[in-house]
Amino acid sequence: MAISEEFRQSLVPSFLYSSTKPLSGFDKSSMNANHNHVMPRPPYVSPSSKYSTGDAAIGSGRILIPAPKEKIEMYSPAFYGACTMGGILSCGLTHTGVTPLDLVKCNMQIDPAKYKSISSGFGVLLREQGAKGLYKGWVPTLLGYSAQGACKFGFYEFFKKYYSDLAGPEYASKYKTLIYLVGSASAEVIADVALCPMEAVKVRVQTQPGFARGLSDGLPKFLQAEGFGGLYKGVVPLWGRQIPYTMMKFASFETIVELLYKHAIPTPKDKCSKTLQLGVSFAGGYIAGVFCAVVSHPADNLVSFLNNAKGATVGDAVKKMGLWGLFTRGLPLRIVMIGTLTGAQWGIYDAFKVFVGLPTTGGGAPTPAPAKK
Predict the structure, then answer these.
(1) Taking Cα atoms as reference points, which of 9, 39, 10 lies closest to residue 23?
(2) Could you give the C-alpha distances from 8 to 37, 46, 332, 355, in angstroms and in order?
(3) C-beta of residue 335 within 8 angstroms of C-beta of residue 233
(4) Which pTM was predicted?
(5) 3-state SS, residue 1
(6) Which tens digits make up the pLDDT trace of 177-216?
(7) In 3-state terms, what secondary structure has residue 8?
(8) How far apart are CA 200 and CA 137, in angstroms?
(9) Are 140 and 198 in contact (CB under 8 A)?
(10) Interatomic CA distance for residues 131 and 99, integer angstroms
(11) What CA–CA distance (Å, rounded) separates 70 from 14?
């Protein structure tokens, strides 16, 4: 990934770095260090700088803050902080970007007689609400999925390491897929608690005409109608949708990426360019997203139904939509949406990790703690 050295060293926030002792300059051994660690860089001073003071170089009317002299250590608090920030960007931006598709999908699930297909659904929304209406509910989408992404990716990295340490080196490698599955499920339980309130408001705003314009008036109306507990009415079906989705998202991604590096790319991962690694991340994410959409779609229909109708139950949803409807209504659109979404999420997440000097995700077994001698 081609990033200007000046740009990266000026903008990378120092709070993402650990508090280890500063490294002085380069040495040859650090150039061959494990690719999981950031190689140290000397302070950057702009060639056009007239003079420098302390840690900042000043020249040509601008102040250039040098890169941190420290590295992000794998599995340190700074590492998990960087992964959390990457998750916020990954999920918040992508879900907000596909708000129009999500809006059509939710309405197709709730009112299939009116929203018969993807194209007609967009047509109905444009006629009734105009182009602005296609982004209805974007604020709760941004806030809810940013919170979810922070917990999803941050806690996944934590639980993946935690369960690998519990298993030990031999079993961590032997049962790595199980570790991916359990780690991602553990993370998603927490992530959905963070997402659920905003998801409830989002669905109500998007699928009930005249209910509210957005979060600012939608949240008070929702609380007045159903109370605080109503915000978590859909948490169980949300778990039913998101936990299988996330287990498939992370486990299949890790497996697909490992297979791509093993069979499709002749060069070892640590020898590949960052651009190629990010391309693998996007491809692996897109393929994983297709599996995710199929696995989690019935629960997605339930979440939309329950959040749209006051007092509705799972039994009401099954009775009205039927089992076939639960599995298929809105599925083609969701496959397109989730495939693109998941690919983009992994691309953004790993791009941020590369930006702060961390390796991309996947391509090897989880890293357990070294065995005690």
Answers:
(1) 39
(2) 17, 13, 40, 7
(3) no
(4) 0.72
(5) coil
(6) 999 999 999 999 999 999 999 999 998 998 888 899 899 9
(7) helix
(8) 11
(9) yes
(10) 12
(11) 9
